[in-house]
Amino acid sequence: LATGPRQNNGIFYEIRTYDIKPAKMKEFLEMINKYLHFRTAHSELVGFWYSELGAMNKVFHIWKYDNFAHRTAVRRALANDKDWQGKLFSEILPLVEKQHNEVAYLVPWCQLGKPSKEGGVYEWVTFQMKPGGPALWGEAFQAAINAHISTGYTKLIGVFHTEYGLLNTVHVLWWNESPDHRAAGRHSAHEDARVVAAVRDSVRFLESQQNVLLIPLQCSPLK
């Protein structure tokens, strides 16, 4: 009767997406690179990126928390941090048009990975799956991800399943050496029988999909 594999611990990831005013993107990125250490003093940043293709003037950042009590304590501490409030938060807020956040868990069959080297690009793929959760589409989705991994052209960083936000959403973060390396790998994958079969099985449960090419900021732990 279970709806999916059991979550083994309380660790979760807050995924934040900001729409930045187009004329202010350069200023926003400079501020983040210069002063984000005031924020990372309070909790662990997984990565910070800006969109290059697939979305305009967006930034994505992922924060790791031990549990919800941990996040509450961090937010309380930030509210009382004069450096954070005065030197970064109050300065970037006028540059932001819209904020969106989600809470997600890593799927049980995925560990958070790292790229083999610095200097590549990231791909953020959002899958909106049919209602029903992993009990319905989990095995087929995992098989499709593993089929792409088996081709060797891309590196899996993480697979996140939403807990708060739009449900039945899965975000997959990939790393590639370059956009051209990714494009060549994708073309080859489309002719790989393993990938074709796995994707045909998994799309039965797919509502929509969006891909965004991301560039890591200088201050991002994942580069």
Automatic annotation (TrEMBL):
Domain of life (superkingdom): Eukaryota
A biological process from GO: mitophagy
InterPro entries associated with the record: Dimeric_a/b-barrel (IPR011008), NIPSNAP (IPR012577), NipSnap_domain (IPR051557)
Membrane-crossing segments per the record: none
One GO term describing the cellular component: mitochondrion
Pfam families reported for this sequence: NIPSNAP
Domain NIPSNAP residues, every copy: 13-111, 122-221
Stated family: Belongs to the NipSnap family.
Protein name: NPS3A protein
